[in-house]
Automatic annotation (TrEMBL):
TM region(s), chain numbering: none
Function as written in the Swiss-Prot or TrEMBL entry: Zinc chaperone that directly transfers zinc cofactor to target proteins, thereby activating them. Zinc is transferred from the CXCC motif in the GTPase domain to the zinc binding site in target proteins in a process requiring GTP hydrolysis.
Signal peptide: none
Catalytic activity: GTP + H2O = GDP + phosphate + H(+)
Annotated protein name in UniProt: CobW family GTP-binding protein
Family: Belongs to the SIMIBI class G3E GTPase family. ZNG1 subfamily.
Keywords: Chaperone, Hydrolase, Nucleotide-binding
Protein species of origin: Muricoccus vinaceus
Amino acid sequence: MSVPVLLVTGFLGAGKTTVINHLLTAPHGKRLAAVVNDFGAINIDAELLAGSAEGMVALQNGCICCTLQGDLLRTLSLLLRRDPAPEGIVIETSGVSDPAEIVRSLLDPVIWREAALDAVLCVADAQALADRPAMLDDALLLSQLRAGDVISLNKADAVPAGQLADIRARLAALLPGRTVLETRCGRVPAGLFLSDDPLAFPDRALPAASRFATPGFESLSWTAEGPLSLPRFQATVSRLAPLLVRAKGILRFEGQQHPMLFQMVGQRATFGAAPAAPPGVAPVRLVLIAENGRLQPDAVRALLNDCRA
């Protein structure tokens, strides 16, 4: 399986480095590597991990200092050859760069087989947007926002509620359907990104939506013993997409011999090759993640059940 990659973009001073430090030190137990564009590697001191919970896998954060103007594939290959290899890679773009080219590079099939783009997170400075509303007319900032599957409206606690509502309304008009998270001190929900492989989810349908481990979000798990109809599944995903933050699963479709890895974050959905299911595990497993209260479990399960071939 590919190592998931999270691309973090955003304007100068928005808080990207703070977000990445939070992700690297969050108690998720994963070995994460960070690729930082145009300034030094993030230093994660051992003291930051001194209070780790018992039984948690040590975060051997692989940090590397480089620029993304050279051979991105070579940089990622260097990380993937480490022993042990990272279980996720976080790439930070420069605050003055357009992430579109990096996104295109990460979607290259050669790179995707080894390091698949999991999501693009755009960090926006809520305080700066409140003080200077004209920033949303800046072409570079707009490009960064449009590249984001999820937007972190950072420093939201420093902005009065009325101004924050105005910013959200403008973002909704510019980027309809985009997930916007209000954050402070870069504390994005780590569980939304670089998620576990769906093969680890149980091989049974849950009776109701299970509460997601990240506060403010819930998840729904669904399994099927037989293949799905691809057209019906695509129609269902299009219908559910406005409600979801992300979705991920191992799927098998009618007429296809091999399982497919399905991932959706924001407005972007992708299919890729997936390993065969282990013995005794349902061949179709899907997890949907949404903000609390947006999913109606019975209705969603009925839609998914209708996708079965």
